[in-house]
Specification:
This protein has about 250 residues and is α/β, with parallel strands linked by helices. The protein is built from nine helices and 14 strands. It is globular, with a radius of gyration of 18 Å. Bound molecules: zinc ion.
């Protein structure tokens, strides 16, 4: 098993430091090195690996400095082997990555970028989704197609309900307001109040869970007839409904 620490980076990025009982650690998506170094030193941890979900600068910005300082190895997608700084270990769909007796399964989840991956830890009931699935939202389509993103989101949605979701950014409140703007409900209103209260205390909304996201995240509901009807998109395919929702969000 491992414990997960949330490290806030840049303006709204999340980096995660995970460590085992021997104080050996891996870090997911280090946006920048210094907050990660502070976290490692404060908790007396030895950094062994950097895991990158995708190549964007706000997920790999700390790679070189951390690798230099800790002599750790960098893990990422085979498809991003020319774009992830300092990458050592290349992974594909279905591969297993091991950290001692801790095992992670790799899902290719293209859409935000081509070559985006998720790290799923079955025993620890945790998934690191980068900029593909956010709490109440999903990433913009910078490189992939809506079809790719929809398939990727379904792959994550199929994980067990209790799985904790660790994503790349704190966008939850603005995502909740977006959903409320197109499909208002008392449940969402309550969620918005809850998030405003959390933010006023400088607290994080992460991790979410698959169960919570299936209930409220509209991007996971593009194949729900009630949602497509409410949006006036009767008889449209889930991909079309997803594309429509993503376009609305891009212009929100
Ligand atoms: Zn990104």
């Amino acid at each position: 098993m491992f414990k997960t620490l949330i490290v806030k980076c840049l303006s709204d990025n999340y980096t995660y430091v995970c460590y085992n009982e021997n104080n050996e650690a891996f870090v997911v998506d280090p946006s920048e090195a210094s907050p990660v170094i502070d976290c490692l030193e404060k908790n007396n941890l030895k950094l062994k690996y950097i895991l990158n979900t995708h190549h964007h600068f706000d997920h790999v910005g700390g790679n070189y400095e951390l690798k230099e300082k800790y002599k750790c190895s960098i893990v990422g997608s085979e498809k991003d082997k020319d774009r992830i700084p300092g990458i050592d270990i290349h992974l594909r769909e279905g591969d297993k990555w091991h950290f001692g007796d801790i095992e992670s399964e790799i899902f290719e989840i293209s859409g935000h970028t081509v070559g985006h991956i998720a790290f799923y830890f079955n025993r620890e009931k945790s998934v690191f989704t980068g900029d593909t699935l956010f709490s109440l939202g999903c990433g913009r389509l910078f490189e992939g197609t809506p079809k790719m993103m929809w398939e990727s989101l379904k792959k994550i949605r199929d994980l067990p309900d209790e799985t904790k979701i660790y994503c790349g950014h704190e966008y939850t409140l603005s995502n909740a307001k977006f959903i409320y703007s197109i499909l208002p409900s008392d449940e969402l209103k309550g969620k918005i109040n809850e998030l405003e209260n959390l933010y006023s205390k400088n607290l994080s909304s992460i991790p979410s869970t698959i169960q919570e996201e299936k209930k409220l995240n509209i991007f996971l509901q593009a194949d729900n007839n009630q949602i497509s009807e409410a949006l006036g998109l009767i008889e449209k395919s889930p991909e079309n409904v997803f594309t429509h929702i993503r376009n609305l969000k891009d212009n929100f």
